[in-house]
Design goal:
Length: 426
């Protein structure tokens, strides 16, 4: 969650109920929600499903606006606590599926945070079979430790009766009242509709969604705490391969589609090309093909600290990499080692001298940045702040400590090997 303001609530009441009843339930939800500490305003809309994107008499939604962050200092008024408070109250209402959902992390991509899973009937199994397969996915998914909150508004048992009648409410309360409605007969006189028509109860889906031309159930859900969105998508894909019949398939939509569309090989190529460019620039600077290797090999130390910090704090691995900050110290140490060697010292003496000369400067630079990032490390509110503070502090802390030992040692080994090969060539 990035925003701390609009929070939609989605409600799908029992299939077949009237819009008037939906409004009564909506009012029963509105009143206690507006008095929750931290809630500022509520926009309530009945007769429309934000998840399905369609009008429905048994659906409603509310947009809840929070107070300003500065006016919600206690944890009980933070986003997670308010959502939990709302959902706790909704669980006590037995008139349908009621749940409070966070807004999507990127506006315009989806209707709520989490993933959007589209279950498709690809061989005409029917809506009943589609609902059965969807129920299996939801039940098994909610049983997974890495998933939570799987749900859908799809129902294949909604009444299919639609009548527009100009009659007062007492004369159209029950389906059997339709038989008493008057229509013109062959002679022009009004006769009861029941004399020329029969009433049968037929059930089906309130709305049928098609995704890539296939009848589809939209299932939304989230990764459980401690799991990343990528891990949640992989769990859903693995479960689908095991549980879905051959007539069913699935596809990703909204932000989930964008995430799964990223080619890992393309990302690896980008990072590989970046490292190659850094290597070539340093090779030109030092006029050596071997010296930049010790700088490039220092990069994993920052990643080690960042990943370790995220794991210790139970955060997902959406890491803000610290490659530039980590290599800065390595470049300075290597540069001074090269200067000391050119002044006539041996390789070992040059490495030790570079550490002694740059020790205070490296610590001052690193800890000034680490101390500046501590407010982010202990911050509350947006999750991105905590992740950024964790990666900066832990990444630089480990990178600084390791680089003071590893970088001179790596430079010494590479330079020693390079000198040996140079003597053999001579």
């Amino acid at each position: 969650m990035i925003s701390d303001f609009d929070r939609p609530g989605e409600w799908a009441f029992r299939t077949g109920i009237s819009y008037d009843f939906s409004e009564l339930v909506l009012l029963a939800v509105f009143v206690p929600t507006i008095f929750i500490p931290g809630v500022k305003d509520i926009l309530a809309v009945g007769g429309y499903s934000i998840v399905d994107g369609a009008a429905s008499p048994n659906a409603a939604m509310m947009f809840v606006t929070f107070e300003n962050w500065d006016d919600r200092p206690v944890p009980e008024q933070h986003q997670t606590a308010i959502l939990g408070h709302i959902n706790k109250g909704l669980a006590e209402i037995e008139d349908g599926l009621l749940v409070a959902l966070p807004m999507p992390s990127l506006p315009g991509l989806g209707t709520s945070a989490g993933f959007t899973y589209m279950l498709q009937d690809r061989q005409g199994s029917g809506l009943a079979g589609l609902q059965q397969a969807g129920g299996t996915i939801i039940t098994n998914g909610n049983a997974q430790t890495g998933l939570q909150g799987l749900r859908t508004t799809f129902r294949s048992t909604a009444p299919q009766l639609r009548v527009t009648a100009q009659a007062d409410a007492p004369y159209r309360m029950n389906p059997s009242d339709i038989e008493e409605l008057k229509v013109p007969g062959p002679s022009g006189k009004l006769i009861p509709l029941g004399t020329v028509a029969n009433i049968e109860e037929i059930v089906g889906s309130q709305t049928v969604t098609r995704f890539n031309f296939y009848p589809t159930i939209k299932i939304i859900g989230q990764a459980a705490p401690g799991y990343s969105s990528g891990e949640a998508l992989l769990l859903m894909e693995d479960m689908s391969d095991k549980e879905l019949p051959s007539s069913m398939g699935f596809a990703w939509a909204d932000l989930s589609f964008q995430e799964r569309s990223i080619n890992p090989m393309a990302m690896a190529g980008i990072f590989g090309f970046s490292i190659l460019m850094v290597y070539l620039v340093l090779a030109a600077q030092y006029e050596s093909w071997t010296i930049p290797i010790s700088v490039c090999l220092s990069v994993p130390t920052a990643l080690l600290g960042a990943v370790g910090g995220l794991m210790m704090r139970g955060m997902t691995n959406n890491i803000y990499t610290l490659i530039g900050l980590a290599t800065k110290s390595a470049i300075l140490i290597v540069e001074f080692a090269v200067m000391e060697k050119k002044s006539g010292k041996t390789t070992l003496e040059a490495a030790l001298s570079a550490v002694r000369l740059r020790f205070r400067a490296v610590l001052m630079t690193a800890f000034s940045f680490i101390l500046g990032a501590i407010p982010l490390l202990i911050a509350s509110g947006a999750e991105s702040r905590k992740v950024l503070g964790t990666t900066v502090c832990f990444g630089l802390l480990v990178a600084t400590g390791v680089s003071l030992v590893a970088v001179p040692m790596i430079w010494f080994i590479i330079q020693f090997i390079s000198d040996r090969f140079a003597k053999v060539s001579d």
